[in-house]
From TrEMBL:
<dbReference type="InterPro" id="IPR000008">
    <property type="entry name" value="C2_dom"/>
</dbReference>
<dbReference type="InterPro" id="IPR047255">
    <property type="entry name" value="C2D_MCTP_PRT_plant"/>
</dbReference>
<protein>
    <recommendedName>
        <fullName>C2 domain-containing protein</fullName>
    </recommendedName>
</protein>
<keyword id="KW-0677">Repeat</keyword>
<feature type="domain" description="C2">
    <location>
        <begin position="1"/>
        <end position="110"/>
    </location>
</feature>
<feature type="transmembrane region" description="Helical">
    <location>
        <begin position="831"/>
        <end position="864"/>
    </location>
</feature>
<keyword id="KW-0472">Membrane</keyword>
<keyword id="KW-1133">Transmembrane helix</keyword>
<dbReference type="Pfam" id="PF08372">
    <property type="entry name" value="PRT_C"/>
</dbReference>
<dbReference type="InterPro" id="IPR013583">
    <property type="entry name" value="MCTP_C"/>
</dbReference>
<dbReference type="InterPro" id="IPR035892">
    <property type="entry name" value="C2_domain_sf"/>
</dbReference>
<dbReference type="GO" id="GO:0016020">
    <property type="term" value="C:membrane"/>
</dbReference>
<feature type="domain" description="C2">
    <location>
        <begin position="411"/>
        <end position="536"/>
    </location>
</feature>
<feature type="domain" description="C2">
    <location>
        <begin position="252"/>
        <end position="372"/>
    </location>
</feature>
<feature type="transmembrane region" description="Helical">
    <location>
        <begin position="946"/>
        <end position="975"/>
    </location>
</feature>
<dbReference type="InterPro" id="IPR047257">
    <property type="entry name" value="C2B_MCTP_PRT_plant"/>
</dbReference>
<feature type="domain" description="C2">
    <location>
        <begin position="577"/>
        <end position="702"/>
    </location>
</feature>
Length: 1026
């Protein structure tokens, strides 16, 4: 049995259901975990009991912890009848267990045991996992129940409150031995393209895969001529041969051989050469020393190890991978050389025939290296031996990620390190919100006794600085009660610094005192419980005279409520393209509902991003982001059509999330691109998981469309293979009925402006942390993937959003046009049928809702034939990226604040004024109609109000004596009357409504005619100049 224990602290319960017949209860809590049961003490006559009792359960095997669950039952104990009644239960899945340092008390609402159970209240628990050997499991006693029929009342009081009802279950024989590493339960799947096959105990459901070989075709993402875009910008379906077989129509045609773990990428064969070490090397220099290194050559490709100074028994342990499809030689040469200043000396070599190299397929064990005797250039044996391991494998080999690749050879003369070329997996830090409630400050003493201090508090956390409003402390006590939010990442490195400052003069502040609070001592919470305030003494910023300190009777202090809010999801990307919606606190995480698999196959037609040796070239790599896991592919040098064939996996917790894949040009190789030393973005692809069918493999060529100041431009195509598998269809369906964001976003919502500010800070923190890793994921890459500038103004996006809104109401407009045609009797047969249907609905009003639902059902069934079969992609028509004004594009690419000349800013301002004037007119017209409705009974127009009041009285009498169905039928026939009985003039009700007064007369502040004259003269002169 392992040393791991599951700790459960039963804190308290609130608002329990009274069950003793006297308006109260005698509650206790019974805990169940893996066959072990413990019970708390009984609280007499208490509906809000407090226990604060801790229990420890044995964990047989941490590997099976996600499959277990903790259940807490609350019972009302009746001593008179030796029985108990159910008050509620709480069930916590094993995936929500966290280490002790992350554990906080959570208040869980009590659940029902059955349909007819009547419960209420909540139970506060603190659940954690620990491997502290000093902590022992709770006392193990024989199976006993306090109130069972076979235990006498005289023995019942002798049983301690902490009872183990059943012994711990022994682990099954087929379980693995206990391990000495902590298993993080809710971590994401860290499988890399070279990792072992997934061994999760979860079975993913996928649809049966049948061969349906359709011809390759271009996908039209939107119907209608208004949304069609050029063929070059359209999404293209591909049918590649992947590791699992050929993909045809989203299904896999299985190959004859068993498929490998990496079935979403094409198998690429590599020649792997592991240079381990050497021994007994001869001395080459006059001094008797040797600076050895190894050169591995296959045809025109050459890989070099690092060199050791004065070492005749070096150990390299480096791996080289040569693409087999590019090899044009049949001999492998491994040359040992001596590093010299002028010319490196030849020590010896090993020649191997590539036809004799063995093939290794995982999960076979690694190939054992062998000792090879060195030869001279003539083929004769010389002194020294070299240990090598040579085999042929695929990208599924575990040596592939850390190997030197022949397609990622750094150009001559560059100083780029090898880590910049290798593929890596990054995990973004866990982000927290820090809530600081600044309540008040006492004894604010300043040196100048002739005035009252004007104080404010400045709070700083890293690069984030916020301040309160300025308050005049007439009693030398200042009160604010303001909430401020910061973003911080684990591990906590910065301290929270609060300084109380006095506004002495404009642009001159003096620090009265400050306090430094380490984030490690701040309380964590995962719900909306009240955080208790604390008083902190303010330290003086500078050294003062000791006598002056003795004269001060009181020391200044500040009252704060500080906590780490774990109930929120910290947004670090655009809200429209979020890839993770889980809260910060791990206790609130739900089990995953599926698995996302991504195969980055290749890119084609990449546009040259820089110049090398007089030729345009690109050194591309891909970055994929989903949740906290970022992946970066290896860099392919000097290739307009790079082939990556790397596969990655993520756990999915919500289907309404987005996967983002971007392509970048590596500018760390010596040549600088148009943006200097920054990696240039080539394009990105977004895929929303809710638009994917479970079990289907999507293989498409996504056009990389980028908006440049000159217009939209296609930078190439990215070929991807995507599969979304679900663990349970029922759990996925239940997700659609749950809130999108954690509960705290609805209990204590954050203002939109504050969310934007916090999102910007979160992106900067994530970019700073990822840029410190090796190899660094650069800041410009993180900002581009996270859409850090998506909130800035853009005329193009405003037009696109307006036309999107118009397309939403296009259905209503079409229905209105059809109804007008019906009323105009354009098609008499249709009009007569509408009259008959209307009369049936009036006579049988109970058929209205069933008819509407049945109509919507039939529409949905009909549209199923034309359902989208491919993930959506960028549409240049909908985004208005095709026919956009160059000046509008220049405005979109302008910095904030602008760096354009005053003339450009004036032109843009005038254009914005004209658009705002139209919006102002529309808003004013809507307000006018609403004010006319309000004026019906306001007697603003006494004659109109009198007419309306008399009409209401007459309508009340008519409606009282006339059936409603008759009135509805008459109103319907009147609206759909024949044009012969219509007039071209507006009807009387419309004329009456348009004559009602509004508040437009009270909101007219117009310039004088002379001012209008001057404005017209200036505008005409400017038009003549332009």
């Amino acid at each position: 049995m392992s040393n791991y224990k599951l700790g459960v602290e039963v804190a308290s319960a609130h608002d329990l259901m009274p069950k003793d017949g006297q308006g109260s209860s005698n509650p206790c809590v019974e805990l169940h975990f893996d066959g072990q049961k413990f019970r708390t003490t009984i609280k007499e006559k208490d509906l809000n009991p407090v226990w604060n009792e801790c229990f420890y359960f044995n964990i047989a095997d941490p590997a099976f912890l996600p499959e277990l669950a903790l259940e807490a039952f609350v019972y009302n104990m009746n001593k008179a009848t030796h029985s108990r009644s159910f008050l509620g239960k709480v069930r916590i899945a094993g995936t929500s267990f966290v280490p002790l340092v992350d554990a906080v008390v959570l208040h869980f609402p009590l659940e029902k045991r059955g349909i007819f159970s009547h419960v209420k209240g909540e139970l506060g628990l603190k659940v954690f996992v620990t491997n502290d050997p000093s902590i022992k499991a709770s006392n193990s006693l024989p199976a006993t129940d306090l109130y069972t029929s076979n235990v006498s009342p005289s023995l019942a009081h002798e049983v301690p409150s902490q009872v183990l009802i059943t012994q711990t279950n022994l682990p099954p024989e087929n379980k693995h031995e206990s391990r000495h590493t902590f298993h993080s339960i809710s971590k994401e799947v860290h499988e890399h393209h070279s990792s072992a096959p997934i061994s999760e105990p979860v079975r993913y459901v996928s649809d049966p895969m049948k061969p349906e070989p359709p011809p390759p075709r271009i996908v039209r993402m939107y119907s209608g001529s208004s949304s069609q875009q050029p063929v070059a910008f359209a999404l293209k379906e591909t049918n590649p041969f992947l590791g699992g077989g050929q993909i045809v129509g989203g299904r896999v045609i299985r190959a004859e051989k068993p498929s490998s773990t990496y079935d979403l990428v094409e198998q690429m064969h590599y020649l792997f050469v592991r240079v381990v070490k050497a021994r007994d090397l001869p001395t080459m220099d006059i001094t008797g020393s040797l600076d050895p290194y190894v050169e591995v050559r296959v045809g025109n490709y050459k890989g070099i190890t690092k060199h050791f100074e004065k070492n005749q028994k070096p150990e390299w342990n480096e791996v080289f991978a040569f693409a087999r499809e590019r090899m044009q030689a049949s001999i492998l040469e491994v040359v040992v050389k001596d590093k010299d200043l002028l010319k490196d000396d030849f020590v010896g070599l090993v020649r191997l025939d590539l036809n004799d190299v063995p093939i290794r397929v995982p999960p076979d064990s690694p190939l054992a290296p062998e000792w090879y005797r060195l030869e001279d250039k003539k083929g004769e044996k010389t002194k020294g031996e070299l240990m090598l391991a040579v085999w042929i494998g695929t990208q599924a080999d575990e040596s592939f990620p850390d190997a030197w690749h022949s397609d990622a050879v750094a150009p001559a003369g560059t100083s780029a390190v090898g880590s910049h070329f290798r593929s890596k997996v990054y995990h973004a830090p866990r982000l927290w919100y820090v809530r600081v409630n600044i309540v008040e400050a006492q004894d604010v003493i300043i040196a100048d006794k002739t005035r009252f201090p004007d104080v404010y508090v400045k709070a700083q956390l890293g690069n984030q600085v916020l301040r309160t409003r300025t308050v005049q402390a007439r009693t030398f006590n200042a009160f604010w009660n303001e909430d401020h939010m910061f973003v911080v990442a684990e591990p906590f490195e910065d301290h929270l610094i609060l300084s109380v400052q006095d506004c002495v003069a404009p642009n001159k502040d003096e620090v009265i005192g400050r306090v430094v609070i380490p984030l490690g001592i701040i309380e964590k919470r995962a719900d909306d419980r009240i955080v208790h305030g604390r008083w902190f003494n303010l330290e003086r910023p500078v050294t003062v005279d000791v006598d002056q300190i003795k004269k001060d009777k009181f020391s200044s202090r500040i009252h704060l409520r500080v906590c780490l809010d774990g109930g929120y999801h910290v947004l670090d990307e655009s809200t429209n393209y979020s890839s993770d919606l889980r809260p910060t606190a791990k206790q609130l995480w739900k089990p995953p509902i599926g698995l996302l698999e991504l195969g980055i196959l290749k890119a084609e037609g990449i546009h040259p991003m820089k110049t090398r040796e007089g030729k345009g070239t690109s050194d591309t790599y891909c970055v994929a982001k989903y949740g906290q896991k970022w992946v970066r592919s290896r860099t392919i040098i000097n290739s307009p059509s790079p082939r990556y064939n790397e596969q990655y996996t993520w756990e999915v917790f919500d289907p309404d999330t987005v996967l983002t894949v971007g392509v970048f040009d590596n500018c760390q190789l010596g040549e600088k691109g148009p943006n200097g030393n920054k990696d240039a973005n080539i394009g990105k692809v977004r895929i929303r998981l809710s638009t994917l069918e479970t079990g289907r493999v999507y293989t498409h060529a996504y056009p990389l469309l980028v908006l440049h100041p000159s217009g939209v431009k296609k930078m190439g195509e990215l070929h991807l293979a995507i599969r979304f598998s679900s663990t349970s269809l029922i759990n996925m369906m239940c997700i659609y009925s749950k809130p999108l964001l954690p509960k705290m976003h609805y209990i204590r919502p954050l203002p939109m402006m504050q969310q934007d500010m916090l999102r910007h800070q979160a992106v900067q923190i994530v970019a700073a942390r990822l840029s410190r890793m090796e190899p660094p994921l650069r800041k410009e890459v993180v900002e581009y993937m996270s859409d850090v500038h998506s909130h800035l103004w853009s005329m193009r996006r405003s037009k696109a959003n307006f036309f999107r809104l118009m397309s939403v109401f296009s259905g209503v407009i079409a229905v209105n046009k059809w109804f007008r045609d019906v009323c105009a009797w354009r098609n008499p047969i249709t009009t007569v049928l509408v009259h008959i249907l209307f009369l049936m609905l009036v006579c049988f009003p109970e058929l209205i809702l069933p008819t509407v639902c049945l109509y919507m059902f039939l529409i949905g069934i009909w549209n199923y034939r034309y359902r989208p079969r491919y993930p959506p992609h960028m549409n240049t028509k909908i985004s208005h990226a095709e026919a956009v004004n160059p000046d509008e594009l220049d405005e979109e690419f302008d910095t904030f604040p602008t760096n354009r000349s005053a003339e450009f800013v004036r032109i843009r301002y005038e254009r914005l004024r004209s658009i705002a004037g139209r919006i102002q007119t529309v808003v004013g017209d809507l307000a006018t109609q609403g004010e006319r409705i309000q004026s019906l009974l306001s007697w603003r127009d006494p004659r109109a109000t009198a007419i309306f009041v008399v009409f209401c009285l007459m309508a009340a009498l008519v409606l009282y004596v006339t059936p409603l169905q008759v009135l509805a039928a008459l109103a319907g026939f009147y609206v759909m009357r024949h044009p012969r009985f219509r007039h071209r003039l507006p009807s009387a009700p419309i004329n009456f409504f348009r004559r009602l007064p509004a508040r437009t007369d009270s909101d007219r502040h117009q310039p004088s005619k002379l001012l209008y004259y001057h404005l017209d003269q200036e505008s005409s002169a400017q038009d003549d100049e332009s």
